[in-house]
Each structure stands twice: as C-alpha cells, then as structure tokens.
C-alpha cells in the first residue's frame, strides 16, 4: 500500500467530522432505520472501521477534548492543557478549550508539508490553533453549539484574530452552509499543490431542527426504542443534571425519546445529502480519484439508552464512533475490526500520505490493520469523564469505575461482557466468574491513569494489593 504511493502526487484529503454522530447512526453500521445512502456508498467503496473509540474528557462539552485529541494525536489530558493544569484538576477552566500550543495539529503538519489547508465550520479549540492550522477558510464557527440558522460565522481572517464582533449570523441551515463552502473551495482549487479540506458540521447536535421534509421521513411509529432504553439511569453517575440530560422529561417517556431519535435521524439524513454534494464536486472537478475522504465524529450520544440523553458517560453509545475512509491506497469494501482510538486517525493519515508527523503523537497508525496485521490492533482502549468516571475495555470485557465527587456520583464498578451483552445491561462485577477479568482490567486502568497523569487514581482493594 505505502509503496504504491512512491513517486506519485500526494492525495488530497477531505476530512468530514460530525457532532454527536454515534457509530450505529449509519446504515453501513447496521442501522436499518436511518437513511444514509452517501455514507453507505463511501463505506462500500472504502474502509469501514468498526471499533473506533473516543476517550471522553474533563469537561461536559465533550466535543472540546475529543476534537483536541483527534487534532493533536494525543490523550485528552495532554491535548488541551499543561501537566500542571491537569494535576490541579481544573475541570471547567476555559483553558481546557484551547489546544496545547506545543503540539502541531493535523492540518498544521499538512500545511508544513506543502498542502493548502482550508477550514470550514465548527472549531471549538481556540482561535490561535485555527490560525496556525489553516491557510484559508470560510464560514468558521468558534463555539460549541447554536441554532442551525443564524449561527454566528466568521470569514477567514489572515491575521488570526477573528474579532467576535466580526461574526455574522448565517441565513442558511448550517449543514448546507458548510457544504456550500466546501463545494466552492473544491471547484475553485486549480493549484498543483494538494489540499487538506476540513469540514466540521454542527449536525446532528441539538437543537435538532431539521428541515421539515427530512423529519417527515421518520414518523414516530417507525422509530424503535433502543434495546437498553430505560426510564431513568439506575444510579447517580455523577452527571445526571447536566444540560444535555435536561432536554427531555424525567422519567423518560417512550414517545418523547422516539421524537428525539426521529429528529436525530432527520439531521443525519440531511447531512448525508449535503456530503453527497461535496463528493459530487470532487467527481465533477476530476479530483475524486486522488482524494482521500475521511468521515468520523467527535463522539456519540445516548438519546434514551440507559435512561440518559447526553454523551457525558462512558457507555458504548457515547464513546463508540464511526470512521470511514475512501480513496487511493485504500481497500474497497473492507471492514477493519481491530480496536482503535480517535487519536490514531492523525498518524494513519500521515502514513497514508507519507507526510512527516509530530514525534509527540501518541496515536498508533491504523495502516498495519489496513494491511491485515491483526496483531497491530490496540489490546485495550481507555476513557474518562471529569473526576467521576473511568473506563477500560479490551473489546470484549469492559470495566467502568465510578467515583463519588462532593455531593454527586457513586463509588461502584460495572463489568460488562460486550460479546454477550452489547447493550451493557448486565453488570457482572460481583460475579465470581468475572473476577479475573475485573482484576486484570483494574490493573490496566490504573497503569493507564499513571501513564497519562490522570488527576484521579483508581482506588480499590485489588489495586492496593
């Protein structure tokens, strides 16, 4: 694969990232309700990674640490703040929204390698990192969320200052606006240099207000409840009253959850159609055959699973993300099942394009997995949420450890066998048959926490022994 690229023009990259799009919200990932023909086609003509995970974060605005990890190729504790700040446990400090200035971003390394970098849409990691990442841009949104019509967006500012007063409210739905900018860039790009086009959608994040024609495609009677639907979460996980959880009534009502899912799927279908316009622009400009298209998301979301609505948890629905890649040097119709982490995308693209990477990158290239080396897969992946939740999984066995912090949270452990219990309904932490797995995972989690300088440490009788 890598040898085939030698001596050829480097491929373009179109990097598409959605907000809140969980792994099973795509037809190609097994969802029989949502309509995603464009993403399904990209998966059919490229590679679908079925076991990619984000790592959580130290703030309720999880798009910040997850995008920071993706953009720097490092763990969530290193990606945004200094070691001192992490150790102080400043979980809501605004500095957590800024990328670590010592770490070159993914588009920045491409910019240094001669690519024309162009950023469109949401950037929730500070203006300074955007300025050093992109040589151009359009309709840039510095923030976490907002109305999809009237979103305050900036023109590209060569000075990198992006004064707040210069933002203008959009007159189009955000998904269409960002797709328009991407199509314009592709059509106007006539330079010999390859490009790195970064398009960050605010969909399907709430407020989920899809155009009515798309909502009409999802009548409530056709929306099944998830297999782990609950009216309420069975215990205090440390974050039951965050904004996201208050977007539906307590206890959860079946039709209300169906309405949330219908709006979610509608937003996804609308976005899928707009992505189709971007793909068509590549084809019309004869750039499709030498462009790698990447589709992923910052994290997932619950929407009724486990009685939760948001993503401030470490269950599969919130950590498990889609990753689709299609383009030169990639197989057609392949599925990669080995465990991977969001920060692995950075070195993977660099290896595919023979682009020098940053030596501080902690992610592992997925190229060996693409070439059939199953031994190259991660043995375990890890996650954190604020100072109240920690997680480790080897793909089959998964441990979630909860901590009481002040007046919230619980001191308890969950152990799931994902092979027999993919909905994470049966906690076997007290089952003697799972004792060896519990001990092993606790030790792995503690070792990871020490390695990444986690501000909290796993405390248990086993880890003390």
From TrEMBL:
InterPro entries: Alkaline_phosphatase_core_sf, Sulfatase, Sulfatase_CS, Sulfatase_N. It comes from the Bacteria. Residues 11-354 form the Sulfatase N-terminal domain. The keyword Hydrolase applies. Keywords: Calcium, Hydrolase, Metal-binding, Signal. Transmembrane segments: none annotated. The keyword Transit peptide does not apply. Its cofactor is Ca(2+). It holds the Pfam family Sulfatase. Belongs to the sulfatase family. This is Sulfatase-like hydrolase/transferase.
């Amino acid at each position: 694969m890598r040898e085939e690229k030698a001596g050829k023009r480097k491929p373009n990259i179109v990097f598409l990232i959605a907000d809140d799009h969980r792994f099973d919200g795509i037809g190609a990932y097994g969802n029989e309700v949502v309509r995603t023909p464009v993403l399904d086609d990209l998966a059919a003509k490229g590679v679908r990674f079925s076991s990619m995970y984000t790592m959580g974060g130290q703030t309720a605005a999880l798009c910040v640490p997850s995008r920071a990890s993706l953009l720097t190729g490092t763990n969530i504790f290193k990606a945004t703040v200094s070691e001192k700040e992490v150790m102080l446990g400043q979980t809501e400090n605004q500095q957590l929204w800024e990328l670590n200035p010592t770490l070159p971003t993914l588009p920045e390394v491409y910019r240094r390698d001669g690519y024309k970098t162009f950023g469109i849409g949401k950037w929730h990691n500070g203006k300074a990192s955007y300025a050093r990442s992109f040589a151009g841009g359009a309709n840039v949104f510095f923030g976490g969320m907002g109305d999809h019509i009237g979103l305050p967006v900036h023109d590209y500012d060569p000075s990198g200052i992006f004064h707040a007063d210069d933002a203008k409210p959009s007159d189009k739905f955000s998904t269409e606006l960002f797709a328009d900018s991407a199509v314009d860039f592709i059509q106007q790009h006539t330079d010999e240099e390859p490009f790195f086009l970064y398009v960050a959608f605010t969909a399907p994040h709430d407020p989920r207000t899809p155009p009515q024609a798309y909502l009409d495609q999802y009548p409530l009677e056709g929306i099944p409840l998830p297999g782990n639907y609950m009216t309420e979460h069975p215990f205090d996980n440390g974050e039951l009253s965050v904004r996201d959880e208050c977007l539906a009534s307590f206890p959860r009502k079946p039709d209300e959850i169906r309405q949330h899912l219908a709006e979610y799927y509608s937003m996804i279908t609308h976005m899928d159609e707009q992505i189709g316009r971007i793909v068509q622009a590549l084809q019309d400009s004869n750039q499709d055959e030498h462009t790698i298209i990447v589709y992923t998301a910052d994290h997932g979301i619950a929407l009724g699973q486990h009685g939760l609505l948001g993503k401030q948890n470490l269950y599969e629905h919130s950590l498990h993300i889609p990753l689709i890649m299609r383009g030169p040097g990639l197989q057609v119709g392949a599925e990669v099942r080995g465990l991977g982490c969001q920060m692995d995308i950075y070195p993977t693209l660099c290896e595919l394009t023979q682009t020098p990477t940053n030596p501080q990158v902690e992610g592992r290239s997925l190229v060996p997995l693409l070439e059939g080396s199953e031994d190259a897969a991660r043995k375990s992946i890890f996650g954190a949420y604020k100072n109240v939740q920690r997680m480790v999984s080897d793909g089959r066995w998964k441990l979630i450890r909860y901590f009481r912090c002040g007046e919230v949270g619980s001191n308890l452990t969950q152990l799931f066998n994902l092979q027999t219990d993919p909905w994470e309904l049966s906690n076997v932490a007290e089952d003697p048959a799972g004792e060896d797995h519990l001990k092993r995972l606790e030790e792995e989690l503690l070792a990871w926490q020490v390695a990444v300088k986690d501000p909290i440490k796993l405390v248990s009788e086993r880890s003390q022994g």
